[in-house]
Design a protein that fits this description.
The protein is mainly β and 263 residues long. The chain is 11% helix and 50% strand. It contains three helices and 14 strands. Strands 8-7-6-5-4-3-2-1-14-13-12-11-10-9 form a 14-stranded antiparallel beta sheet. A hairpin with a 2-residue loop joins β10 and β11. The longest helix has 17 residues. It is globular, with a radius of gyration of 18 Å.
Length: 263
């Protein structure tokens, strides 16, 4: 049973950090101004089957590194309640994203789980097309990277810059796991869903994840973005052999919503 939960939460971890995915610079002309910025904070409740299984918090702040003004996009995710008794997860990710070139400069990762502890840093040299990966105490390794690539977390923020036109399919480069990937997304339809005591208009999208590991052959991710200038992900759903994991936005700051019929 423990192995089952472990695999489930390996799936959930991959989902939580890639749940915000998409896009790449060929679409830059569609966004004259960014739909996100410092001060934004989103809190999600994670549900697996009937269990309240975790929390996910994303936040953006402004920082300066090497003379550049960057966005620090952080993600903190941890297990709660019953699930935390059998499988603990307390992971932290920080993407340092350059709003001038609209691409990642650095990603830091801290994994703290029941049987896993890992620290990693990836430095994205966008000008030379090189990613330098430092994992735990191993010596740094260099890998060829497609210039303009996003890391797996910042790529989701970039997605919010897309037009997300119904019926459109997008493909984009992403560097992760020491490799270059092509990711795919399909914009399915516009949909009004229940949200915070009322309803909200969203754009329903489907992503095909092609990472190795838990999602290798069965990874499908659904994301509901608000149909407004913020393109906020208010709901996310991933499927696995052990049931679906759903993220629902419960708290927010730095964005606005047009909630219909709220009590």
């Amino acid at each position: 049973m423990v192995d089952r939960f472990r695999e489930q939460y390996e799936v959930s971890r991959v989902f939580l950090v890639t749940a915000f995915l998409l896009c790449f610079p060929v679409y830059q002309s569609f966004a004259d101004s960014l739909p996100f910025g410092p001060g934004e904070r989103l809190v999600y409740k994670a549900q697996w089957l009937f269990f309240d299984s975790g929390r996910v918090v994303t936040e953006i702040s402004g920082v300066k590194e090497e003379g550049r003004d960057l966005y620090k996009m952080s993600l903190h995710t941890w297990t709660t309640h019953f699930v935390n008794q059998i499988w603990t997860m307390d992971d932290y990710f920080a993407s340092y994203w350059d709003p001038e070139i609209r691409a990642t400069r650095k990603l830091t990762v801290k994994i703290r789980e029941s049987t896993t502890k890992k620290d990693k840093k990836i430095t994205f040299n966008q000008e030379k097309g090189i990613a330098v990966v430092e994992k735990d105490k191993d010596p740094p390794k260099e890998f060829k990277m497609i210039p303009g690539s996003q890391d797996f977390f910042a790529a989701g923020y970039y997605a919010r810059m897309l037009p997300l036109t119904v019926g459109t399919k997008y493909e984009y480069p992403l560097f992760e796991d020491n490799k270059n990937y092509n990711m795919h997304v399909k914009v399915i339809k516009k949909q009004r869903i229940k949200f915070m005591g009322g309803e909200i208009d969203t754009i329903f999208t489907k992503f095909k994840l092609k990472f190795e590991g838990a999602f290798r052959s069965r990874g499908v991710l659904y994301v509901w973005f608000t149909d407004d200038k913020y393109r906020t992900p208010v709901k996310l759903k991933a499927s696995s052999f052990f049931g679906s994991i759903i993220l629902t936005l419960t708290e927010y700051r730095g964005v606005e919503f047009n909630i219909i019929g709220k009590d």
